[in-house]
Amino acid sequence: MDEQNQKQQKKPSRLSGFLVRLIATLVVLAVGLSLVVLVAFRDRLNLDSAKRWFHYLSLTRSDSGQAEAFRYDGDLSCTFAALDGDLLVCSEHAISLYSGSGTRYINQQVSMENPVVNSNGSLAVVYDAGGSSLYILGQRSLVWSAEGLEGILSARLNKNGQLTVVTQAAGYRGKVTVYNAAYDPVMSVNLTSAFVMDAALSDDGRTLATLTVGQRDGAFATGLELYAMNYASGSYEADVSASLGGGVALDLRHTAGAVWALSDRGMTISDHDGNTVSVDWQNQYLRRYTLSGDGFAAVLLGKYRAGSQAELWVVDQDGTRRSLALSEQVMSISTAGRYVAVLTGDRLDIYTQELELYSSLKGTKGARTVLLVPDGSAILISAEGAGFYIP
Question: pTM for the complete prediction?
Answer without folding.
Answer: 0.86
